[in-house]
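[step 3/7] fold_predict: job queued, chain A
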Amino acid sequence: MPEGHTVHRLARTFGDLFGSRTLQVTSPQGRFAAGAALIDGRVLVDSQAYGKQLFLGLADGTRPSDVLWLRVHLGLYGAWTFDGDGSTAVVHAIGAPRRRVGERETAPAGPAGAVHADGSWTAPAPRGAVRVRLLAEHAVADLTGPTACEVVTAAEKDAVVARLGPDPIRDDHTGDPGAEVAARVRRSRTTVGQLLMQQEVLAGVGNIYRAEVLFRAGLDPLRPGRDVPAEVLRKVWDDLVVLMRDGAATGAIVTTRPQDRGASGTPGASAPADPRRRVRQNTDDRPGAVDADDAFYVYHRDGRPCRVCGTPVLVKELGGRSLYWCGVCQV
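[step 4/7] structure written:
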């Protein structure tokens, strides 16, 4: 399941490729045919992310105030695949299937489909079970495997957002979102490690950010939420704001401090990783980028020495997901 920064990058991609353009909306798979018919021929006027929810606002060309929203939650297996005629740069895929794209955006070798002598372009045929296809003059986006895909009204969209906790990447919160998150955590006896993954407490945090921000706070993930001081939870929120906004800007999750990376770090920093568990980053091939193996403190580092204290990183299942932490640094 992609982290929230990935969904924010998706919203930006849709705005760049399809903003103010009329879209042909179809359901090649057939399962979304009724929904596609509701928004076919509409103009993309807005693209938003809130936590792990993507909202695409589509207006009737003759009635601009008449906006319907395509709501998509990728879940564990969903992904968007993009192609274009070569007139603008597009990523190839953004989404959740970890063996295919993971947290990385992949770029195509060149334009897909057919570019004709008159300059027109025919999009490539859908590949796989495409739930919904959005097609504009110069680009196409195909959605496969989402947990949720539906057309909603503005009121229904607002109701979905109202059920979510604050999103660290957004800056349009009312009140004090850090205090709100702290209050929501401290109302529960559930472990703080589980609460940070509950979208009604904190929107957009996934397994990587959960593990890493708890390590950076020195916080035991198995501690009941009600026992965590409010000032510690406020620091967790502030840290997530910095880390997740950086992820949204760069396309990579990097949580380690420079002194804790590579051979110059602590005893555990340069221990070899299992290449089969490497988390691919969008910046892997960028000169000067932090290598994926140096990007995390504990995530997927179970059994390897902690970067700070050298004791083996622990792992256990918590709430159906693997939790990684250091039993010495997080007390």
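[step 5/7] annotate
Helices lie at 4-18, 33-39, 154-162, 177-186, 192-195, 207-216, 230-250.
The radius of gyration is 21 Å.
exit 0
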